[in-house]
Amino acid sequence: MAHDVQTSIYDELYIIGDVDRVIFMSEDTRFHVLRVTVEKTNTQFKEDAIVTGHFHDIEESERYKFTGKVTQHARFGEQFSASEFKKEIPNTSQGLVQYFSSDKFPGIGTKTAEKIVEALGLDALSKITKDDNALNDVSGLTKAKKLQITETVRSSNAADEAYLLMIKLNIEPSKRSKIIDTYKEDTLNVLQNHPYQLVSDIFGIGFKKADQIAINAGIEPSDPERLVAGVMYTLNDEISSIGHTYIMYMELQDKTLERLNNAAEYFSQEDVSVAVEQLALNKKLIITEDRVTLPNIYYSEHKSAEKLSHILRDNPDEIDLDKAKDVIQSIEKSLSIGYNDNQRHAILNALTEKVSIITGGPGTGKTTIVKGIITLYQEIFEYEDYDSYEPKNYPIKLVAPTGRASKRMADTSGIEASTIHRLIGWGQDTAVDDIIDNEIEAELIIVDEMSMVDTWLFYQFMQNVMPHTKLVFVGDSAQLPSVGPGTVFKDLIGSGVIKTTILDTVYRQGEGSSIVKLAYDIDNGVPMNINDKFKDRLFIPAGTNQIAEVVDTLVSKAVDKGYDMRDIQVLAPIYRGPAGINNG
């Protein structure tokens, strides 16, 4: 549910009242919209009010005090946006009787509630919270019922205390209910003594936020739990943000101390080493020789390697090479092209090898080779009649890590293609076990844009590939690596155990264009003279603070010459600074 932007018109006001109805509640964020019958307030709401906010354990017919501000909703008018709330403790006999006979205490009727109030007085709730034997003097209560009442009162009080503490600790409203739901009666203990536990248990709370919570809770910067959490934060950051699959042991020590403010004042490298070893004993990380990684990364890489080795050990089908070569010649004629020897080898490798790789830059013929592989496979194994198959049952599967890349494969091949995620059934809420059990029925799988595939995705994909299936990995090893951890495509090429075709002849580029050649020269470290002039590129000297103005002038001139703005691109290597994307 979307919540329209609201405009504040008052500050820090309160409403005390009974929740008449919960109009809306988000299960994920616990954002509520409540109708409240007003008992007392310093706002203009005199009879009832719509109260909104992130609340935990709101109950209809219960009385609460809401603190916040009046807002003007674009569609629904004036509302009360609460930043804090607290259940009002009954302070009259009648109120306490109503409380103990409410749905919160199943099996307790009005008469029993009256006995409790008569025996314990107006501070009944306080007595029950503090004294295990407070209900012993109430006649008619079984031992089980006494325990139930005591636990309910204490649980409710603990949740209220925890919620108020989280407000003081500046924990955002959307996280408060998640924390209470996770730790329940142990919430106060975690917040006050083990806030770094939040990092691993509560999505959206990272080390920096937990560190601030710890400071607000009065925990010393030298607390050993802070160092342990700091090690895990550093390791996770190296993997998720930078893309490494491991970090060197000594580097982990140094970077952990860098990330913990004033760390040298409290911790030594030996302290970090102790923390790392403790985490290894608890199986939170894995140490191999002088490298440290996360268990899921370690096992993903090892399981992927094992599966690949298993597939590579399986002997491929016997292929009539003479027939295959004849088919390739007929493909060349039908497409009006001529494959070079390197390209022909790439096509044949797809049939003769269980796993093969094709790598090359733009314009080197990868798409044409893939089309040749598909056609060759169709004719050799008699899969030509594509329309007679259900797409999901076709023996050749085309996949890519992105929707755009898979659509391009489908458009150029005439065969349905999908993302890897879709092929293996990996949705946002899919359990890992369900993904691994989803075997792919295929004789040949061609994976395009392999440089974009990270360690996680490759593992999930490989676990679903059947041993008899042939695999062809296609991509450009010179492209930037995947956003996620690992450089899977480069590692596969570098392993030396998979037959690899490297395409280095450029075909698809405008006649006389120098751009692709420039890209290859840069990639291969070939010296160039930046002052050389070409019809499709030009170097213009400019200072950092002049670049934006120069680009603006060039774009204006291009538009004046008749170019459409949609055909003009400005590329920048950085986000910040006068020449960065953010200054566009």
Automatic annotation (TrEMBL):
<dbReference type="Pfam" id="PF14490">
    <property type="entry name" value="HHH_RecD2"/>
</dbReference>
<dbReference type="GO" id="GO:0006310">
    <property type="term" value="P:DNA recombination"/>
</dbReference>
<keyword id="KW-0547">Nucleotide-binding</keyword>
<dbReference type="Pfam" id="PF13245">
    <property type="entry name" value="AAA_19"/>
</dbReference>
<dbReference type="InterPro" id="IPR055446">
    <property type="entry name" value="RecD2_N_OB"/>
</dbReference>
<keyword id="KW-0067">ATP-binding</keyword>
<dbReference type="InterPro" id="IPR029493">
    <property type="entry name" value="RecD2-like_HHH"/>
</dbReference>
<dbReference type="GO" id="GO:0005524">
    <property type="term" value="F:ATP binding"/>
</dbReference>
<dbReference type="GO" id="GO:0043139">
    <property type="term" value="F:5'-3' DNA helicase activity"/>
</dbReference>
<dbReference type="GO" id="GO:0017116">
    <property type="term" value="F:single-stranded DNA helicase activity"/>
</dbReference>
<dbReference type="InterPro" id="IPR050534">
    <property type="entry name" value="Coronavir_polyprotein_1ab"/>
</dbReference>
<protein>
    <submittedName>
        <fullName>Exodeoxyribonuclease V alpha subunit</fullName>
    </submittedName>
</protein>
<dbReference type="InterPro" id="IPR006345">
    <property type="entry name" value="RecD2"/>
</dbReference>
<dbReference type="InterPro" id="IPR003593">
    <property type="entry name" value="AAA+_ATPase"/>
</dbReference>
<feature type="domain" description="AAA+ ATPase">
    <location>
        <begin position="352"/>
        <end position="544"/>
    </location>
</feature>
<dbReference type="InterPro" id="IPR027417">
    <property type="entry name" value="P-loop_NTPase"/>
</dbReference>
<dbReference type="Pfam" id="PF23139">
    <property type="entry name" value="OB_YrrC"/>
</dbReference>
<dbReference type="GO" id="GO:0003677">
    <property type="term" value="F:DNA binding"/>
</dbReference>
<dbReference type="GO" id="GO:0009338">
    <property type="term" value="C:exodeoxyribonuclease V complex"/>
</dbReference>
